[in-house]
Design goal:
By secondary structure, this protein is of the alpha/beta class. It is built from 14 helices and ten strands. It holds the Pfam family PALP.
Length: 325
């Protein structure tokens, strides 16, 4: 059964502010950029939160850094491990490398080759296990029980959620008058952290989660009111694949409380989002990051709103890009 077991609101807000200070030496404060082209197309004032400009190419470094920097000396010496569809694994490997901590990353065979190579370049030991993230997760916890390694969860961990929530601090600082924030949705650590902070700053801010139309586990779990599993499929938004865990303790209940709407985005719209960012902003972003832009381009009723689209990452294979051109 999914449980609501996160700390009370005061302490989580405090932890987000503490995370901001803790991760400052490793994590960049990314720009919030006004998009004139997307604003002209939609009639809204569109701003892009460019997490693709992190050194790891994605927002995941925030949560990974906050978690690992919170570990004791003994825990660091034993090392860290994680299971990931790519970006979280890259973040854990990068932070561990910066701090000289051994890292193991467990992934499924669906993770693109480019991300696997990047993990190895960062010094991580890569274990390819099974067909989906659940298989990789199970193996990761075997390593924890055998060797005392600390598992850095991709999303369902309060330190990770607090790290991702620092994006909310930066958004509010740069654009106090926000109507709508659009955030890619998978396991929910990113949306939970940002939405939690924003809703406690201004409850009127509308939060939309966007995800691919197939294998959208969190979206379907929200519809059914419980954690569900779905078979994974090939998608441009491969970073959004994976389950939320039957024993999900934090993100599911938080998202139920703080999200206003969860929307599905077609593969064609995700492709349009990738191409729009290449055309209008000369940026190459991954499919998961393009879900928000793809959603935006399909909207008819957003004129005159201040909308922030969180651009989550840029880790995309060359062959994927070539297939869209």
């Amino acid at each position: 059964m999914v449980q609501a077991a996160y700390r009370n609101e005061f302490f989580l807000l405090r932890d987000i502010w503490k995370a901001r200070k803790r991760i400052g030496s490793i994590v960049k404060r990314t720009p919030l950029t006004f998009s004139q082209p997307l604003s002209s197309i939609t009639g809204a004032s569109v701003y892009l939160k460019l997490e693709n400009m992190q050194d790891t190419g994605a927002f995941k470094i925030r949560g990974a850094a906050n978690k690992i920097l919170s570990l004791s000396k003994e825990q660091r010496e034993k090392g860290v491990a994680t299971f990931s569809t790519g970006n979280h694994g890259i973040a854990v490997a990068y932070v561990a490398n910066q701090l000289n901590i051994p890292a193991t990353v467990c992934i499924s065979n669906r993770v693109p080759t480019g991300k696997v190579n990047r993990l190895k370049q960062l010094g991580a030991k890569v274990e390819v296990v099974g067909e989906n993230q659940d298989d990789a997760e199970a193996y990761c916890y075997e390593l924890e029980s055998k060797y005392g390694i600390t598992v850095v969860k991709p999303f369902d961990d309060l330190d990770v959620i607090a790290g991702q929530g620092t994006i909310g601090i930066e958004i509010i600082h740069d654009l106090p008058e926000i109507d709508h924030v659009v955030i890619p949705l998978s396991g929910g650590g990113l949306l939970a952290g940002i939405a939690y902070f924003l809703k406690h700053t201004d409850p009127a801010i509308h939060v939309t989660g966007v995800t691919m139309e197939h294998a959208a586990v969190m979206h379907e779990s929200l519809k059914q009111g419980k954690a569900v599993n779905l078979p994974e499929v090939n998608t441009l938004a491969d970073s959004l694949l994976g389950g939320i865990g039957k024993d999900n303790r934090h993100t599911f209940s938080m998202i139920k409380q703080y999200i206003d709407k969860s929307e599905l985005v077609s593969e064609d719209s995700i492709a349009q989002g990738i191409l729009a960012m290449m055309d209008h902003h000369k940026m190459v972003i991954e499919g998961a990051a393009a879900a928000g832009v793809g959603w935006l381009l399909q909207q008819q009723d957003i004129a005159d709103q201040n909308i922030v689209i969180v651009i989550t990452g840029n880790n995309i294979d060359q062959e994927t890009i070539e297939g869209l051109l």
